[in-house]
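Hi X.,

You mentioned you wanted examples for the new student's onboarding notes, showing what a folding record looks like when two proteins sit in one file. Here is a clean example. The first protein comes first, with its sequence line followed by its structure tokens.
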Amino acid sequence: MRHSMLASACLLASALVGCQQRPPANDQLDAVLWSQTSIEHELIYRQVFADATRQLDVALAHPDWDALPLPPRKLAGLPPAVIVDIDETLLDNIPLNARDIRHNQTYSYDRWNLWVEQAKAQALPGAVAFLQAARQRGVKVYYLTNREHSQVQATVDNLRLRGFPVEGSEQVLAAGTPVGHCEQAGYGKNCRRQWVASQARVLLLAGDSIGDFVQAEHNTLDAQRRAVEPYLGWLGQRWFLLPNPTYGNWYSAPYGDQEDLPMERKRQLKQQALQLQQ
């Protein structure tokens, strides 16, 4: 009888847990929650863009000021410009990640492409004011994005809807753009940055990924550190980096960018990448 009662109690407890419909584990939950609900996220964006706005006048006052990691070049006669990333720098796409978490879905390029075409992304705090301030000073804005070249018009529409200064679609340099013969450069932004360098004196760069500033040889922390080492003094002066805890090269580096691996194997490799002691 006692064993029967225990068995019945266990079955009841199991049923109650099942009725509660415990949410499945999702590796992005806390990152998305922080991005959407923390005051710190909002204030970091406002702080970074306020600092970048103040630096515009400093950069304009120095005719030899250059924010590109290139050998010294002739800047005389080149008009001033800034280069900015779009996703998670200017436009907030995290609602798409939030939707995937709610519906227990993995990332889908089809859903991403639909999101881009709908031009629903909202502006991140401080971003519009920064670029409007740049435009008021006669500084041209180049938007370097790893959205596809076929999505340029939808991206222009989204930026304009949120108040960003976009005079023409040629300002949006997407992956695979024919500008500067960059069709074969893939998602690396070096080729596009070099083309902008031929057109303008670049005052500032802003983005949420190291690839928005310089291209490392490999997707490893050591390679990235080597790539940025010569330019550490530019942080907060010529380079303005924003946080993205939701996705990026860092996310896929522990499993070698092998997106076809099972989720459990990816999670295992990410666990192994954690550092318990220096």
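Then the second protein repeats the pattern, sequence line and then tokens:
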Amino acid sequence: MMINPQEEHTELIPVDAVTVINPRVRNQKVFDEIVANIAELGLKRPITVAARETGPDEPPAYELVCGQGRLEAFKALGQKKIPAVVITASSEDCLVMSLVENLARRKHHSLDLLRDIRRLKDSGYTEREIAGKTQLSRKYVHGVLRLLESQEHRLLRAVESGKIPVSVAVDIAEADEVGVQTVLRQAYEKNLLRGSRLMAAKRLVEARQLHGKGRATAERKSRKSLSVESLLRTYQNDVEKKKMLLRKASATRSEMLFLMQSLKTLLSDENFVTLLRAEGLANIPKTIADRLTRAEGTTA
């Protein structure tokens, strides 16, 4: 959507009057840096919002188009109002502009990329239009949508957990069994997959070939809730393990006491001590000597 400059104006608006229609999960360290920069230097660029109609006795309302981090930073700093560029746009146009704004960023989370492309598709945009709005290649957009529409749940979970980049997941989905090895090799050469991540990707590919694309998270067999009986069994098993460890410790202690007493008896035999000296074994390790001394003191 193209916005007419005459329909734009800048004003101070209440931070609590802005609704975030496309919220993002933010890295706390990055957010702290935004807050610190705004606290020290002030707001360099206003946020962008679209005004919403309200009743005569109702406070103003806006929908956020761009600037969630700046808005949340102002709230964290206790500010009541924030500079904003107010535009005229429908809720649907606001959502699309917000999606495009996020997709156009140089850095974004893989899940956000997947979700935003899908939401643009669900909003009725063609692959060509999505590619034009996001500055992504049409081939790449097609691949991402194929990954979602073909229910590549195993690959999607790998992307969610950060095991493989979304671009590699798309290439794997597009490749045949032979081509997958080429995809992994190219990912290694481009430094996208190295070390443990490369091994995890290989295991993922093997699992996908053996067991298929996997099931959606919601379709996975849910874990049985812990009942009182299962908790009791777990506790009893834990008690039995501890009892076994105590029995082993007691048996080991008895064996050690027997060995120490036997050694003490042997060392009191002059003939045995003479034999040790003849063999060059007259010196006893300090740890054993200390234990023998303590045993003698206890006996006395």
